[in-house]
Amino acid sequence: MGRSILDGYDPQGFYCEMLGNPASAAVRERLAALSMAALKERAAAANAELYNLGITFTVYSDAKTIDRILPFDVLPRVLSAAEWRHIESGIVQRITALNLLLDDIYHDRKILRDGIVPADLILGNHNYRPLMQGVEVPHKAYINICGTDIVRDETGAFLVLEDNARTPSGVSYVVENRHMMLRAFPDLLDDIGLRGIDNYGARLIAALQELAPPGTADPQVVLLSPGTYNSAYFEHVFLAREMGVPLVEGPDLVVEDERVYMRTTGGLARVDVIYRRVNDDFLDPEAFIAESRLGVRGLMRAYRAGNVGLANAIGTGVADDKAVYAYVPRIIRYYLGEEAILHNVETHICREPQALRYTLDHLAELVVKPVGEAGGYGITVGPKASRAELDDCRAKLLADPANYISQPCINLSVAPTLIDGRIEARHVELRPFAVTGASTWVLPGGLTRVALRRGSLVVNSSQGGGSKDTWVLG
Amino acid sequence: MADVLLARYADCIFWLARYVERAENLARILDVNETFSRDSHGGQNWRSIIQLNSDEERFFEGGRKVSAQSVLEFYVVDADNPTSIVSAIHSARENARTLRPLISTEMWTQLNVFYNHLAAIGVADLAPGRLAGLLTMIKEACQTHTGITEGTFFRDQGWYFYQLGRYIERADQTTRLLDIKYHLLLPDIADVGSPTDVSQWNALLRSAAGYHAYRRLHAASTTPARVAGFLLLNQAFPRSVHHCVREVGQLLGGVKSRYALRGGNDAAEELDRLRAVLGTLTISTILSEGLHEFLDLIQQQLIAVSRDLSIAFFGYSPEASQTQTAIG
Question: Tell me: the pLDDT tens digits for B293-304?
């Protein structure tokens, strides 16, 4: 092999998704045929196109809304067939167990009585919804759309970082990134044995239709969005289009006689299933936050009466809580009698005195996370924190220990990434998307998020993260 | 269930079409004014554009003076002026953003790129040597939108409401253009018999993209009555009020019967009356009874039709004073 654009690339001792993976040999070979200039040119064209296509998320600054693209890195992240089998079976196992957990805690609460999970951790959780007690959910499928965050440590082992079981976003970027790669790098993909992801919309609507009230012929599915000002609005548009269903906002819907309708040009039309991208709290001013304008008055009555399906079900936030997370291996063992296929990152639950003491003693080595936050906010990365930041973290821990967990700092794997015309190592995470109706299906690959700042471990789009196409080969 | 259309979408698609049509008309008027009217009538012509859009109050507050520069700034690049081209395309694009699940990707992309382009335009681009190119770009971008829509937009209910918006706006624009210009260009009573300033009437026809069609019809003579009759009553001219009103009537009838929509009967009746009037009156009758009063009546009826559509199909309550922005 001659000179390659990867020649000067240095993974700096981290596990590298490209060099450490024999499955990527074909990709590396094809990359070798590209010049740096060609790579840069195609990368710039791809990012310009994402902006023009409006494949953007929205950021708010003063009164203005600004559209930003999720920066897209054109060097793909490769997974072998065997790696994917492992991830896929681990995700299916995990979601199966979490759905059993939700069904249990909203019915008999056996797992609490058996002392596997502390009862107050569940019943005292602010995402626990007493209204769901005794409600029957179709197929006992509470988490219908899940985006599990997975990292890889320095040995190459996959670890689950977080279960996003409420309204996970990012799947639109997976599909759009692939479209972009197909246009910009047809020579790279040609005949390489890449698994397709085009059928996500079809799989999603099929699963959603399985949530319709029993006996509904040709169920009407809608996607409920908070509206154009929501940062994930593009994704809502994308999903509605892929499924061919109306994208509605709260004021488009109305509940009469415990049935849900949408306002159309021809009057009210029945709605059978709602894929809602609105949080529980805002979904029904009658049942939750009274001031919410994003929801539908009376929706919970219709839902409890079994007249409408909701995805995800109400109250799934208790299953992806960062403290409950620590118990997931035990939850899997309890319901399925199996060991977890995908391991957790070792987690110290600061509500437990011993774990709090350990955390305080090892603050500079640990990552401390608030249990209720999303988007990477409120995290203190010990090895990278200043003295003042560590002191601040210590004070917060002491003031409210139950709000925090801590984990060892994982040396996240890296992938070659195009940065200012050079190829450098950047840390990556993986978020595969799973869809559950009567059964669970996982979209091959998922969203690879990349921390574009040198040395950064934070991949969130709001904090300098970008994305890569994820290729499952073979 | 593909034949169901959300009331809110119908509203947005109706207004998306109106805003693009409005921007195109405005670009056309500014272009013609720039190219054909920089003569003795210049100042009056720029002032007439302000009257055309009923913008006197907004324009003159803060002591602005009428000049080519100030009017062009106000109508092309001023994002604070809701009747400017950049505002119209911004509104079109915001409606398109809401409508992204409904419209084609190409429609959205073109409007998004068009708006981003317009938003980056500055006062320097309005300089005499560059203005014509800019206005041509705007006109062509609006036409590109129309063409992309024609070629890619699925022909379901949304298409009907899009077309309804387009033709209502176009009819309204033509009545405004005629109303302002006719009286401005009409010679004084004292001048009766003196040769009409033909170039000004030709410019009016060009503003409505009707110059060449008019020539084919009336090669030899340009008279105020014939120009007015052409813009108002000609059935083959795509921007004539009569043509637009007929299209609106057919579209409304079509969408009601094809999708079994019960609402909109008031609007249909108003359109029937309007069509009957336009089909029977001659331009000489209209002129003798007062053109301004006649145009005013048509504008009022178009507003009433728009309002009926909002109530019947877009989910507005009869008490709601205004839907999206109509020109005052």
Answer: 999 999 999 999
> Any chain B CB within 8 A of the CB of A63?
no
Please give the pLDDT value at position B75: 95
Q: Do B5 and A265 touch (CB under 8 A)?
A: yes
Set of chain A residues whose Cβ sits within 8 Å of the Cβ of B259:
265-266
* Pairwise CA distance, residues A258 & A287, whole Å: 14
Q: Give contacts of B94 with chain A, Cβ < 8 Å.
A: 228
Residues of B in contact with A263 (CB under 8 A): 6-8, 315
State whether residue A49 sits within 8 Å of chain B by CB.
no
First to last CA, chain B: 38
Are B253 and B267 within 8 A, CB to CB?
no
* Model confidence at B251: pLDDT above 90: yes
Give the residue among A394, A402, A406 at the shortest CA–CA distance from A369.
A406
For A469, the 3-state DSSP assignment is: strand
Final residue belonging to a domain, choices B125, B154, B183: B154
Residue A5 falls inside a structural domain: no
> Does any domain span residue A4?
no
Question: pLDDT tens, A376-406?
Answer: 678 898 988 999 999 999 999 999 998 899 9
Q: Looking at CA atoms only, how far is residue A194 from chain B in angstroms?
A: 26
**What separation in angstroms does the CA of A374 have from each of A109, A310, A316, A409, A423?**
27, 22, 15, 18, 30
Which of B2, B6, B259 minimises the CB distance to A262?
A: B6
- Please indicate if any CB of chain B lies within 8 Å of the CB of A265: yes
CB A147 within 8 A of CB A169: yes
B161 and B150 inside one domain: no
Cα A128 to Cα A117: distance, rounded to the nearest angstrom = 14
In this structure, are B122 and B240 located in the same domain?
A: no
Distance from CA of B133 to the nearest CA of A (A): 23
Same-domain status, A350 and A442 = no
Residues B134 and B216 in one domain: no
Residue contact B5–A53, C-beta within 8 A = no
Cβ <8 Å between B8 and A252: yes
Q: Beta partners for A414?
A: A16, A427
Question: Is B6 close to A264, i.e. CB distance below 8 A?
Answer: yes
Using alpha carbons, select from A236, A310, A255, A258 the residue that is nearest to residue A280: A310
- A248 inside 8 A of chain B by CB: yes
Cβ distance of B108 and A247 shorter than 8 Å: no
Question: Are B131 and B65 in a shared domain?
Answer: yes
Best to test chain B binding among A55, A179, A245, A265 (most B CBs inside 10 Å): A265
**Tens digits of residue pLDDT in A304-322:** 999 999 999 999 999 998 8
Give the containing element (helix H, strand E) for B285.
helix B283-289
Express as a percent the part of chain A with pLDDT over 70.
Answer: 95
d(CA A179, CA B277): 54
How far is the C-alpha of A419 from the C-alpha of A414, rounded, in Å? 14
